[in-house]
């Protein structure tokens, strides 16, 4: 064998050995596998960043659109360590780690700047530490799941009285049932992958989600009306099995930490841009957009917030809702 061929063969053997020894990182998310999906665009950026910074010692394998497992199963996988990383929405997180349901308190944040400041500050850090201690799941931070709005295929909804008799899909955590029922509608938990079918078949009249998810899952095809009430700033949390994380080298941990930050910026920016242009985007999709005045939003807040707070306090105590209120108040005070 020539020296050139021998060198080529040696390089191939080293590359194969390196690939075989790479740490497999299964990364699950629930949006479609295209670059218009904030979750997927962020996931691809994370993959490129981590594999580059670790010279391939971590092999990131992305499973979009719920391909790896359902949302509750993904949370179980993170606890057990069978799934290394996932970006998961509020409902399944609240079902596994109940204090997260405090973030379902409706009509709380004024805008994205406030919501990000609270979640990036001491409140978010303390919650991440508590989640890690209680579940073995490491929360690096959160990105936007969109400002949640109500949609339905029956009538215009501008005030709580218009919700009477509607059947609405909610995420799989009891706090969301409480929110919808406090406004006079009936609530049916439906897993995210099953939602388009449930709307098409008339199992439910409507649902509540941000613009990104309404467009990404083509929910507008079976929903005529969207009410821009912005009842909850919803989140996608960047989660990792702590058993996997602690098995990384210091350099690999640094790479993961840095690359999550990059993914979050991409994810937040894409989702926030869609929320800011909700009326135009959804109108173009054929939906009738129903604006909500400050006076009407106050009606929604008065109907929903006490019931949801009572439920959350009954589930997790007053500690986390009180801490969230304090963080919001501190943010507002910082601008006085």
TrEMBL record:
Gene3D superfamilies: Bacterial extracellular solute-binding protein, family 7 (3.40.190.170). GO terms for cellular component: outer membrane-bounded periplasmic space. It is found in: Cell envelope. Keywords: Signal, Transport. Residues 1-22 form the signal peptide. GO terms for biological process: transmembrane transport. PANTHER family: PTHR33376, SIALIC ACID-BINDING PERIPLASMIC PROTEIN SIAP. Belongs to the bacterial solute-binding protein 7 family. This is C4-dicarboxylate ABC transporter substrate-binding protein.
